[in-house]
Write a structure and sequence with these properties.
Two copies of one chain form a homodimer.
Chain A: E1 3-11, E2 16-18, H1 20-32, H2 35-42, H3 46-59, E3 65-69, E4 75-79, H4 81-108
Antiparallel strand pairs in A: 1-2, 3-4
Chain B binds a DNA duplex (30 and 30 nucleotides) through helix 2, helix 3, strand 3 and strand 4.
Chain lengths: ~110, ~110
Amino acid sequence: MYHIKSRIWIEGEEGVFLGEGRIKVLKAIMVEGSLSKAAKSLGMSYKKAWNLVDSINKNASNPVIITNTGGSGGGGTEITAYGVKMITAFENINKNCWDFLDQQLKELQL
Amino acid sequence: MYHIKSRIWIEGEEGVFLGEGRIKVLKAIMVEGSLSKAAKSLGMSYKKAWNLVDSINKNASNPVIITNTGGSGGGGTEITAYGVKMITAFENINKNCWDFLDQQLKELQL
DNA sequence: AAGCGTTGTTTCCTGCAAGATATAACGAAA
DNA sequence: TTTCGTTATATCTTGCAGGAAACAACGCTT
C-alpha cells in the first residue's frame, strides 16, 4: 500500500560531506581513475562533479581524495583508504536505515 | 565532528503521500482552519500548498482532508481523525529514524 | 439576490540551479 | 620544449520549478 523512502547525508563543519550523489561520484572515480572520466561515465557535467568532490574535501576529517594535476596522462584522482572506508560505512548505514524504516512502517500496519 | 541528517517520505500509488513539507501544511491547517490561511502562516504560496494537499489526497488510502468550499466564512478545510493519526505516525517514525541514524554513526566512532 | 472569503485552476513571469563553454595551470614523457 | 589530458576556475546561457496574479465557482449568511 504505502511504502517509505529516505535520503540520508553526513555533514561536516562547512556543509555536506557525504550523500548519495557524492558516493556515486567517488565510486565512479575509483573505477575510472579520474574525475573528468568519472563525470562523463555518469552523464554529469564536470563542474557538478567537481563541486561535489570539492565539498567532500572541505568537510572531511581526513583526506578522502588525492588529486594529481599534470603529468604524463594529465593527472587523475584516487580515493584514499579512509575514503573507501567511508563509502562502505555510508552504504551500510543507508541500507540499515532502509530496513529500519520498512520495519517501522510495517509495525503501523496501516 | 560529523553529524548525520535524513529526510523520509511515504509514497502511495501515484506519488508522494507524506513528507516533512506536507506535514507542516497539515499542521498549519489544523491551527488555521483553512488552506489559504495555512499557506499565509507558512509564508508559502497558495498554489504550492494546494499542490501539496492535492498530492496527499491523491495518494491517501483513506480521507485525510475535508474541504468545504463556499459558505458563510467562504469555506475551509479540516483534518480527519485518520489524518491526525498519520501526522503523529509520520513524526514518530521520523524521530525514530533520527535516533537510529545517530546511533549508527556513533557506532562507527569516526 | 448580493456579499463574502474560501477552494480550485489557469496563465504569466522570474530567479536561480545547472549545463555549456572557454581557458589557465600543471607536470611527466618523448 | 612541445605535447597531452588532466585539474581548477570563471563566465555565459538556458530550462524549469515555483511564485504572482487573476479569475471562476461555490454556498452560507444577511
